[in-house]
Amino acid sequence: MQRNKKQCSYCKESKDLDQFHECKGNPDGLQSRCKPCNNRTRNTNKKTLIIPIEIDGEMIDHRYCKKCEELKTLDQFVKNGRGGRRASCSVCLNEKHRKSYAIRKALKGSKQDRAREIA
After folding, report:
1. Which domain of life is it from (predicted)?
2. Model pTM score
3. In the 8-state DSSP scheme, what is residue 83?
4. Beta-carbon neighbour count of residue 77 at 10 Å?
């Protein structure tokens, strides 16, 4: 690889060094992600907005689930222990946990083919 280019760890493209932000902690002094990829992830990780909707004369808070993208009431989201709520609803979170448990169980029983099938 040339000295004036670097490969982005996210999009895997080889780009000029000026396409990377500085990072003094890395050996080459640059971040591993290029500027466009860094901006893309920074914008997608924003908090989901709480939307108050009036139902039967009462304001009820709603938000969109990051996983299934459905509008749900705030009580369908698990508390995150820091005063807020998780970005995924409890249904999506339970599905993620079930899938993770099945993969771990399959790997523990040395059934790697089953783990690949689940993933």
Report:
1. Bacteria
2. 0.54
3. S
4. 23
Residue 33 is encoded by which pair of tokens?
A: 């992600």
Q: Which amino acid is at 52?
A: P
Token pair, residue 12, equals: 């895997």
| H helices present in 1-119, as ranges | 35-44, 90-108, 112-118
Q: Which residues contact 14 (CB under 8 A, 6 or more apart)?
A: 1, 5, 6, 7, 8
Which residue type is seen at 74?
Answer: L
pLDDT digits (tens, 9 = 90+) for 93-115: 999 999 999 988 888 876 556 55
CB 36 within 8 A of CB 23: no
Q: C-alpha angle with apex 89: 104 to 52, nearest 5 degrees?
A: 165
Domains detected in the chain: 5-44 (no CATH), 51-108 (3.30.60)
Residue with tokens 């050996």: 27
